[in-house]
Amino acid sequence: MEKIFAIALKDTKLRFTGITEWLFFLILPIFFTFILAGGTGASPDNRVRLTVVDLAHSDLSQELLTALDKSEAVHPEVSQLAAATGSRKSNTRRPASEPGESTARPASPALTGGS
Fold it and tell me: pTM of this prediction?
């Protein structure tokens, strides 16, 4: 075990002999880490965004919005119906198969002996 540490120490001394090695292996990575971490910044609100469309405009719906706003899990974003469905259309995907639709492929005529 002592020989392994001696080899590692020798290689480390050889690797970091000049200032450029220190610059590229240690200083620049730390510098870029701080720059990128500071540039992106953490959002102060970590709650999940929830798009809410209030079509009822009733006291009960306002009470629900108030309760959601006080929640620590979700952040409601009140939106109009057209805006909410417009942003949703780009994210929707067609299901793999419609209910009642077979997912099996039809057999090839060559495999079934047909022409």
Answer: 0.39
